[in-house]
Amino acid sequence: MTDTSISTLVGHIEASARGGIQSTVPVLNPFSGKRIYDLPQLSASQVEAAGQELRAAQVAWAETPAVKRAGILLELFDVLLKNQDKLIDVLQLETGKSRAHAFEEVSGAIQSALYYGKKSPKFLQREKTRAGVPVLTRTWVERIPLGVIGIITPWNYPMALTALDVFPALAAGNAVLQKADNQTALSVLILRQYAIAAGLPSELWTVVTGDGVEVGNAVTDNSDYVAFTGSTATGQKVYQRAAANFIGASLELGGKNPMIVLPGAKPAKAAELAIGGAFGSAGQLCVSIERVYVHDSIYDAFVTELGRRTEELTVGRSGEFDFDLGSLTSASQLARVSGLVDEAVSKGAQVIAGGKPLPAAGPNCYSPTVLTDVPEDARMFRGEVFGPVLAVSSYSEIEDAIAQANDSEYGLNASVVGPQAEAIRVANRLNAGSVNVNEGYRASFASMESPMGGVKLSGLGRRNGAAGLVKYTQTKTIGVANSGLLGAVIHLPNRAREWKTMAPLFRILLKVLRRF
Ligand code: NAD
User: Fold this and answer.
1) Quick one: which atom of ligand 1 is closest to the CA of 412?
2) Distance from the CA of 459 to the CA of which of 21, 22, 109, 479 falls in 20 to 30 A?
3) What is the CATH number for 413?
């Protein structure tokens, strides 16, 4: 990416600052540790001013027919597909993902434009409802945009999460005030630039950057609804702030996602599925698998296969599909992951594969890691690692495996590997927002039609599908007393004498309604 194209993108943030930039932060390339550019940091008052402009612009957008708004998303789909390689380049530059993992994310982002481009007019359609007093009245429900939607996104899936949350918010007739994470603002800004090229009025989507607390709070304070994705600790603060402002919120938070391997599973295939489920985006994925429970009849064979296959994985930097894994996204991620692994090992965990940084591959690279015997007092036993680290343990009774899988404060995603019918029976008993059978996370994650979200401390609310759009609307019920000839003859009673005449008819009506 050239310096000119970076400064064109960052120009949007500078414009929101209205020339009053007080500070910047250097954004570092995860692969090299070198500075890419300096990102302006906005203040709360600059975010407030941006929010007011969005509020004014949203009025005309709400009046724009839903089909026309959806048409812009379909146009955007074409633009994004044409520029897919450029999007992947920007995503790799900021996140350090391998080409394959960046391709997977960008494909998800592009799909969101297609899905909501096709489906949003249907989700927003006026819905005829059964009238309370048929003949005399009729009713229907309109879906009204909420106004300005605050969207706060993390650094790990900046393009997919932007597309999955921002596109339905715009399609529903809202304006969007988005806080991008400092590390991955270009990924958000380039999507915005393409959306404008596809016909979105530029004044409807403002991206702001800055301190998490100051700018994050300002986004919540200047929105009519906030969609937050990030850690559970921050999500709890956002939810409290939203409650104080009396606005709705959806919270997509952390996970500690289990996989259960049934006795009927083939060890080699199960090991490959664990690799696919655990090491996507170097494990920096909310739905990735972090713990595996394997039946003791195949435990040794599984651990041997998993260890050997994990050691074969390649880690490095390339703009082609050369490496299985890329880099961790930042030095703080490297410190976090190595710290959690080192602590577990110092308390007795066994390293089956990896377990160390890979400085020869890049300053923030870490080896894909398999551990066994992780003790209960290690922080990673219950806490999210958010890196390429898989903890394996054995079970002898399926009830015990299910209990251990469910014994977590999180409930985002889970996986079951083994003969399909039995695996589906186990899947039904796992307490998570999604469960994948003979897959780690992609079978559910890739389905735009299927709601995604968590239970317990993994979140509230859902993205994707109809739910991912209607949360950005409120219903308005229109009730109409019938007019014309019928209305002139008969109407809802107002006076006691009218009630006296109508009461027997209402009783008959209630009896008739019982039959339908
Ligand atoms: P984070 O909570 O530290 O930050 C997320 C975003 O919130 C960033 O933009 C940050 O600047 C902002 N922020 C920080 N303090 C804030 C405040 N007080 N008010 C408002 N915003 C504030 O999370 P992270 O480390 O960037 O992301 C990793 C976490 O996100 C992991 O726990 C991961 O599981 C989770 N995640 C969840 C999903 C999901 O869909 N469930 C998807 C991706 C990531």
Assistant:
1) 41
2) 109
3) 3.40.309.10
Please work out whether the CB of residue 213 comes within 6 Å of at least one atom of ligand 1. Answer: yes
**Which of 179, 181, 222, 384 is the best mutation target for the ligand 1 pocket, counting ligand atoms within 8 Å of the beta carbon and taking the most?**
181
Q: Average of pLDDT values for 330-359?
A: 98
Ligand 1, atom 21, lies closest to the CA of 216
* 261 and 360 housed in the same domain: yes
361-403 pLDDT, tens digit each = 999 999 999 999 999 999 999 999 999 999 999 999 999 999 9
Q: Is residue 455 in a domain? A: no
- State the Rg of the chain over Cα: 26
Q: Which domain holds residue 430?
A: 257-449
Residue 109 sits in the same domain as residue 49: yes
Distances (CA, A) of 473 to 118, 168, 467: 18, 10, 10
Q: Give the whole-angstrom CA distance, residue 282 versus residue 101.
A: 9
Say yes or no: 357 and 407 in one domain. Answer: yes
Residue 485 predicted with pLDDT over 90: no
**Co-location of 363 and 278 in the same domain:** yes
Active site residues: 252, 286
**Is residue 186 domain-shared with residue 202, that is, in the same domain?**
yes
The full DSSP string for 37-101 is: EEEEE--HHHHHHHHHHHHHHHHHHHHS-HHHHHHHHHHHHHHHHHTHHHHHHHHHHHH---HHH
Residue 36's pLDDT band (boundaries 50, 70, 90)?
very high
504 located within any domain: yes
